[in-house]
Amino acid sequence: MRTDTTTYSNFTGWIDRPDDVRPALDGDLTCDIAVIGGGMGGMAAVLRLSERGQDVVLLEAEFCGYGSASRNGGQIAGAPGGDLRMLSVQSPKKMPVMAKLAEHAGRYVENLMKTHDIECDYVANGLVWGAVSPLMMLRVRTQAAILRAFGGGGTVGNREELGLPMGFVGGMRESIGGMLNPGKLARGVRRAVLASSAQVYEQTRVSDVRRTRGIVEITTPHGTVRASKVMLATNAYGGEWDITPKNLATPLYVIEIESEPIAPERLAELDWTSRCGIITQHQVMTHYRLTERNTIVCGVRQAQRGQTFPLPDRVPDPVVVQDMGKDLANRFPTLSDVAIERAWGGWIGISPDWLSVAGQVGDNVFYSMACNGHGLCQVPYVAHQLADYMVDGEMADDLAGIWSNTSKYSASMSLLMQPFVLRTISGVDRFNDFLSGSRTLARRTLRRRRRGNS
After folding, report:
1. Degrees (nearest 5) of the Cα angle 368, 125, 131?
2. CB 185 within 8 A of CB 113
3. What does the alpha-carbon distance between residue 174 and residue 160 come to, in Å, rounded to a whole number?
4. For residues 35 and 226, what is the distance between their CA atoms, to the nearest angstrom?
5. Which of 190, 258, 301, 392 has the highest Cβ tally under 10 A?
6. Is residue 222's pLDDT more than 70?
C-alpha cells in the first residue's frame, strides 16, 4: 500500500485533541488520594473514588486519554491475549485468574459505556484469533484448548464459519467483547471524570514522587501535591521515579496505521462478512479491523524498545510504516493500490510476566500494569478494583489473584525485550508469512469466487 501521502502523528488517529484541556496545577494542595496518569486506568480509578466520596486529585502530563488509552486498536477482549502456551508454563497458577478477570473486564467496560452513555461505535461481535496458514490454525486450536482448560471460552471455526476475509484459514472467536473507537471511549470517560467531584489537572507532568513522614509528596513544575495515598496509573511512563517498582514496565513503542476510505464494493469483495477484529497468532501479534468510516486499521507488527527514561515523544518511523503497508497489501492483495492515510504511535508497558499485575509499595503507594496487549478493558477494570481496595482495604478475588507487594521485579522481561531480540522475532514472523502463502491464498479464493459468480 502507498505511504507517500501518509500523515504521521504522536497522538491517535481515532479522534481529534480536545478543545477544553484543563489548566495545569499552579500551587500546592493536599488531598486524601492522588492518582497519577489520566489514561483509562487513572480515569476509571478517579470515577470510582469519586463515587466513594473520596477527596481525589488526578494529575495528567498531557490531557486525559492522551496515551495508549486512545492509541490502541480498540479491542474489547474477553480472554487473555498473547501466547497462552508460554504463559501457562510461566504462570500456571495465575492463568485461571486471568481467564476470569478478562471476562469480567470485558463486561465492566460494556457497563462503563452504558452507565456514562458513551457512544464509541461499539460492536459486540467478538474478537478473533486469526490464522493465516494451516500451521497457525493448529496453534489456534492449541491455544483455544488451553483457554478452555482455564475456564475461558470461544468458538473455533474456519474462514467461512467465522466470516473472515480471504487470506485467513480460520481462527477462534472470543465469546465476549468486540471492537470500538478507543478515542471516543477515552473521550467519553474523560467527560465523566471532568463532571465528577475530582480535581483534575492536565498539562501537569510529575517530576518526582516520594514519601515524607507518612505522606506521599508529588512534585510538579508549578506546585506540590501531598496525599495520604497515591495510585500510579502510568503504564510505561512511571520508570523515571525511584518509587516505582523496578522492572514493573518494559516500554515498547507500537504503531497503528489506517488506510484511506475504501469503496464499499471493494470491501465486500474481501468477504469479511463478520467485520470482526482479527489478532493474528504471530510471535509479535498483528491486528486488523474494519472501521465505521470504511477504512482498515492495522497495528503493532513491529515493536521498538524504549531504552531510557523519560521516554521520548516521537512519531512513527516511516520505514516501519512502509513495512506495515506492505504487510497489509500482502494480507489484502486486492487493495494493494490503496494509500495509508495516517500513522500514529505511542508507548505501552509490558509487565514482568506479560499478565496483569497490581500491588503496593509500603502502606500508601499503589500501582497496576494491566494491558500488555490483552485489550484495553483490563486496565480500567483492575484500576476500578484497586480504587475500592484503597478505600476499604477489602480485596476482590480478581485483584487478589494478580496482587504483589514487591518493590522490585525480575529483570527477565526487560532482558528479553532487547532490540536485537525484537528484530529477530519480527524476522521469524516474516519468514513464516512467506512460507504460509496467505497472499496466494487470498488471490486464489478471490478467483474462485469470481468464477462462481460468472
Report:
1. 85
2. yes
3. 16
4. 12
5. 190
6. yes
Residue ranges in 91-239 assigned as alpha helix (H): 95-115, 134-149, 159-162, 182-194
First to last CA, the chain: 29
Give residue 182's Cα distance to chain centre. 10
Q: pLDDT value at position 89?
A: 85
DSSP state of 239: G
Model confidence at 453, pLDDT cuts 50, 70, 90, reads low
DSSP state of 26: -
- pLDDT, tens digit, for every residue of 265-291? 999 999 999 999 999 988 888 999 999
Using pLDDT thresholds of 50, 70 and 90, give the confidence band for residue 371: confident
At 371, which amino acid appears?
A: C
435 pLDDT band (50/70/90 cuts)? confident
Per the listing, cell 521520548 goes with: 312
Classified as helix, coil or strand, 301 is coil
Contact indicator for 37, 62 with CB cutoff of 8 Å: no
Set of cell numbers at residue 288: 486488523
Give exposure, 262-293, as e/b (b: 16+ Cβ within 10 Å).
beeeebebbbbebbbbbbbbbebbbbbbbbee
